[in-house]
Amino acid sequence: MVIPSPFVYWAQTEDTITLKIDLKNVVDPDLKILENNIKFTAQGIGAHGLSQYEFTLNLYSSIKSNGADDEITVMRVFDNRVELALKKEKASWWPRLTAQPQKPAWLKINFDLWKSEELQDSDEETRDVMRDYPGMYDRLHKEEMGYRKEDWRKVYLIIYNLFQLIGFTYVLTVISVRYSKLGYDSVTDTYEHVGSAIKFLHLMQILEILHPIFGYVKGSAFMTFVQVMGRNFVIFAMIEGEPRIQTKPVIFYLYIVWSAVEVIRYPFYITQLYKKEIYLLTWLRYSIWLPLYPLGVLCESVIIVRNIPYFEETQRFTISLPNEWNFAFHLPTFLKLYVFLVAVPGLYFLMSHMQKQRMVKLKPKIIIKKSK
Amino acid sequence: MEIEILNVVGSKPLGKITVNDDATIKNVKDKIHQNVKKSLYPSRQAIKIEAKGKVLKDEDTLKSLNIQSGAKLYLKDLGPQISWTTVFLAEYAGPLFVYLWVYQRPWILYGDVSSVHGTVSNVAAICWSGHYIKRLLETVFVHRFSHGTMPVRNLFRNCAYYWLFTLYVAYHINHPLYTAANSLYFLVGLGGFIVCELGNLSIHLLLKNLRPPGTKVRRIPVPDGNPLSQLFNFVSCPNYTYEVGSWIFFTIMTKCAPAGVFAFAGFYQMAVWAIGKHRNYKKEFPEYPKSRKAIIPFIL
Question: Angle formed by the axes of helices B183-210 and B238-254, to 10°?
Answer without folding.
Answer: 160
